[in-house]
Amino acid sequence: MESKSSIEQHAGKSIRCKAAICRNASEPLVIEEIEVDPPKAWEVRIKILCTSLCHSDITFWKMKSPIGFFPRILGHEAVGVVESVGENVEEVKEGDIVVPVFLSNCGECKDCKSSKSNCCSIFKNRTTKDMPRDGSSRFRSMINGEAIYHCLNVSSFSEYTVVDVTHVVKITDDLPVDKACLLSCGVSTGLGAAWKVADVEQGSTVAIFGLGAVGLAVAVGARERGASKIIGVDLNPQKFEIGKQFGVTDFVNPTTCGDKTVSEVIKEMTDGGADYCFECIGLASLMNDAFSSSREGWGKTIILGVEMHGSALAVNPYQIQRGRSITGSLFGGFKPKSDIPLIAKKYLDNELFILDDFITHEVSFQDINKAFQYLLEGESLRCIIWMDRRDT
């Protein structure tokens, strides 16, 4: 926890700290000393307590120029303590425990005030390389003074980061920080997709394409809503045993379907198609499979994965006319500032104990590249990266 004397020492000044820098696409991160500027108006400087690796970080890590910007600091699932705040920041103060999130939530625009959307219309969902208000970086290299780019509005792979106040959520002090870390992206995305976007009801059937952390969180949300059948679709046969503890009741491996398509198998399992299908990978082909697996008349397909290959989604309009629908989901339809505290309360009230099982690995900050290895090899759901822990 940041001490009062430390806060007073750093307030209004730059801080030197360590950060894991991505200097080239797909190369191991390099721990370097950087300088982090003090927060400007509407900004919060956070001392990161722990962070975790999300598959979206892998996606940005692999991006080559000119789409990818280098050097940059990745990371967007984290929890930390407020070190200092800029002018006009009133909702958090020094010493508060906060979760930084990639999705903006200003609370003032038409969309933030509406129950129909969680896409802030003032700040939108920009994934810029700099701070959202003035377009400049708060990070500089101590090697040559060059600016280091931000990523996903958080950049948590640094001992200190600066985040716009619209991307900060205050949480209760009694929530374990490693569990709080999970709520900043993947787990919330899956839970929200089941609860808010699909609004899964008692006795319904669900098919989940991709059993990573997001897909398993969908399973948890569907189970809590009383779904009668939760089908996991994944190429990794081990995911069925893993998925069972999160609520998956049935499993389909596309490589073992023989002459049948995945959608044909799911239709047989659900007597005509699943009521709700969730695509959690980010492939247009799987989005089509998910849509084809939904029930004619009312089947709903929710797309959570981000298609990064530029492939288009082609759907027969006649199938839409017959009652099926497709909708997208960003952060599970949750509004970060109001919904993350509600999930935290569920955990503290022992209504979401399964949250613990998403954490499969833990490493120290200096071993951050191990987290990438675990995820790339399919070994981990979430690897917690502790900023102050020193492994022996």
Defining traits:
26% helix; 392 residues; alpha/beta; 12 helices; alcohol dehydrogenase; globular; zinc ion binding; single chain
What's the average pLDDT? 94
Total strands: 17
CA-based shape:
globular
Radius of gyration: 21 Å
State the low-pLDDT regions, or none: none
Number of helices: 12
The main pleated sheet reads as: 7 strands, mixed
Domain Alcohol dehydrogenase-like C-terminal: 213-337
EC number: 1.1.1.1
Subunit structure: Homodimer.
Family: Belongs to the zinc-containing alcohol dehydrogenase family. Class-III subfamily.
Question: Topology, pairings included?
Answer:
Blueprint: H1 4-10, E1 15-21, E2 30-36, E3 43-52, H2 55-62, E4 77-85, E5 97-100, H3 110-113, E6 139-141, E7 147-148, E8 160-164, E9 168-170, H4 177-182, H5 186-197, E10 205-209, H6 213-224, E11 229-233, H7 238-244, E12 250-252, H8 262-270, E13 276-279, H9 284-292, E14 300-303, H10 317-321, E15 325-328, H11 336-348, E16 359-364, H12 368-376, E17 382-386
Parallel strand pairs: 10-11, 10-13, 11-12, 13-14, 14-15, 16-17
Antiparallel strand pairs: 1-2, 2-6, 3-4, 3-8, 3-17, 4-5, 5-9, 6-7
